[in-house]
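Hey team,

Filing this mostly as a record. A colleague (T.K.) asked me to run one chain through the structure pipeline before their review meeting, and I want the input and output archived in the tracker in case anyone asks later how it was produced. No errors, nothing strange. Just documentation.

Input sequence:
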Amino acid sequence: MRPSKIKYYLNVAREVALRSACFRFKAGAIIVRDDQIISTGYIGAPRKTKDCFEHKFCLRDKMKIPHGQRYELCRSVHCEQNAIINAARAGVSLLGGDMFIYGERPAGEKVDAFPCFWCKKTIINAGLNRVICSTKADGVKIFKVANWIRDWQKGDILDDRYQYGKN
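Output structure:
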């Protein structure tokens, strides 16, 4: 049976996630515009630096930092950020594109692959239209970026209902 476009793109994001260099989480993101994949990204250390696998330990585990906190004390760049950065390096506009995100724990446990606040802010500024995320129930959650903007204009970023690690 032929998968839907959403399932197809999430399957591609799942393959991208396999390149993740994180002991805690595997995630992949792809950006699609006009039904064409224009960029990909996975969790990994900045280019030409050592990732956690090369160091053979997670810095955040060593420092006993809980999941979803203190991202600035991590070697890695998030998959969403890497997809946006990779498009910029190639000179590709993201305006009006959609991002597909797949995430799971290293043992294969599915999670709600919602972007963190840092990534949401970056996605807004990149001009993306929608963010389509895999969920732990093997489903899909589709966010309209314009709704994030509207919600944050009315409330505050911390009022956001769909927070990474909270659902």
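Quick notes for T.K.: Residues 39 and 84 are 7 Å apart (CA to CA). The first strand starts at residue 26 and ends at 33.
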